[in-house]
Amino acid sequence: xxxxxxxxxGVVQGVGFRPLVYRLAxxxxxxxxxLNSEEGLVIEVEGEEERLEEFIRSIRNSPPPLSRIxxxxxxxxxxKRYGEFLILESTQGERREVVVPKDVAMCEECRREILDPADxxxxxxxxxCTNCGPRFTIITDLPYDRKNTTMSxxxxxxxxxKEYEDxxxxxxxxxxxxxPNCGPRIFVADREGRILAGDWLRLTWTLLLEGxxxxxxGIGGFHIACDATNGKTVSLLRxxxxxxxxxxxxxxxxxxxxxRYCVVSxxxxxLLLSRxxxxxxxxxxxxxxxxxxxxxxxxxxxxxxxxxxxxxxxxGPLDVLVMxxxxxxxxxxxxxDGEAFERLYGICDFFVIHERAIENRxxxxxxxxxxxxxxxIRRSRGFAPEPIKVKRRTTKNILGMxxxxxxxxxxxxxxxxxxxxYIGEIDSFEAEEYxxxxxxxxxxxxxxxIDVVAFDAHPGYSSSSIAKELPAEVHLPxxxxxxxxxSVLAENGLEQAIGVILDGTGYGPDGHLWGFEFxxxxxxxxxxxxxxxxxxxxxxxxxxxxxxxxxxxxLLTYLxxxxxxxxxxxxxxxxxELVRKMLEMGFNSPLSSGCGRLFDAVAALLNVCLKNTYEGxxxxxxxxxxxxxxxxxxYGYEIEADAILPHVILRGVLxxxxxxxxxxxxxxxxxxxxxxxxxxxxxxIRRERGLDVVVLSGGSFQNRYLLRKTKQLLKSGGFxxxxxxxxxxxxxxxxxGQALIADRKIxx
Length: 748
What we know:
This protein is an alpha/beta fold. 34% of the residues lie in helices and 22% in strands.
């Protein structure tokens, strides 16, 4: 007789591990117990040595589908002669090493039940089990037990209690377990908050078919929904939401519906059907849906129903809905009923609300497939706050604060980096409060006091101001593009590399705005070897919003009177003179080397986009033009000291415009020029410094064609090439880089 104590760490709670262990122990006639603790999943088991070996082997090889085992600790103990195998109550202690469970899309078993008239979960929008349902969004504390969720206010009926307490049942300790007899109820209300009489589902269908816009409460917050086939309603939603052109996300009934409207690869299908159920960026087919869903783009952001509520909503007369975040543009997503009635009053005609409270708001995740690789654009529901394994040098608890745009934060504890859900733009009081509250929530769940806070070095960022106020031993500013580079290093276990970082804006050590950078270094240091030559941004933020300003500045700065004449032809004499005077006076015209600004300029020259109504609009529309063409040509470039001069590219673009070449071809040549330039300079750096590892990061590498072409050229040139996979390449990934830089610097 042998007794073993096993401690499993990783994603091991709230995923059906205890019933699996229980069934396995019973089958092998082993005695002891299993329980959830803040140490992890704890198992004490005794029996014959051979059976214990089979027990451990089965756990390692066939864990529950939602689990992830990061570590198994095994201790041999004196036998206790247990009489049976039990599942014990969870324990709480000072050590907290469990992983906060993430939300999981509805499973097939629950889907079948809500369609079965003989089942008590028939048409019930809050059906779930151990294999699916809300987790992070309803958790108030750890360990993950019902009393520590917003479901604690709903006493289970006898039938639910029986399933919940049966280790052989699919709902054993499924914390949100509920049915129509004991669980949350759902209602439809008008914009004044008055509950409407009738079945919620049929009411909602009727209102949507009438062209009404609704706020629908989901797992992590509200969506704003409307009939996606009704162009008039989609345009009205744009007007009410203050969203001129930014694409709306769509929810489609099933894969057959997706295939009807979009081109879908096998990889993209698997992502749509995954337990994370993200929004996937897909190539659209024809013109069967209104262009106003995603103006000037050939792509659509699509997700499948991931909760029973969504599944029921799409099971009737509507097969495609706009399902955009429930907020006014750039404010945090709304999660509470009262907040929804107040903030969405001017947008929505009706509200679908329910009694299950949302504790932690969480936006939908967004990703795309480039080649055969998956790229995260927004890491949130279904991913957060599951940790990423990283290599550490210290034992300090570190907070990476993130940036000002696409903010999230990262808590580094031991070898795990916990990235928060998507927070968004930190440019409002509401966003600042959301960020502060989310930090405190994750700190409390992990029982992790913060020793070091790393933040963006930009002196004007609200996120950095908040970071400096947080109690900690050390407050460490980190340069934006260094954090981008180290995010890729951290993901891939690298120590140093050539970093090619392309984005719109980031504060540099010289006080200027960087964004087209060739760096060399690791976590504790970096050198800037090459960069795009600076251009003044006339009007600062206005220049970012109005690409014609940047185009004019580039033409005046690098092509002189030739450029001025062309700018007058394109944008008019009054606009050009305004920019000329601002540049001459140096008035409100900070210097920028941003890749995004060069893309803005070319987009304006091609008359693709003269006004950015959302971040990266001009670059996004320009990149989609490139996807339509076929060409290997590129424009040249010139290097002066460490600066990449843009005049050769600009002259090439102007020459092709005058020649009447199609915009698609000019855009493609421009993209090829950037990729070729990256290869040439990386080759030069390798020759001089002897390093052949290149990491690519920054928001410009969300550009499918640019990333694909750049990787192709670099790999053909003999480089080892890495890019972001586990975090976004945009500013949603820099919190990871900040935290790892702090980890290395405080022990340097």
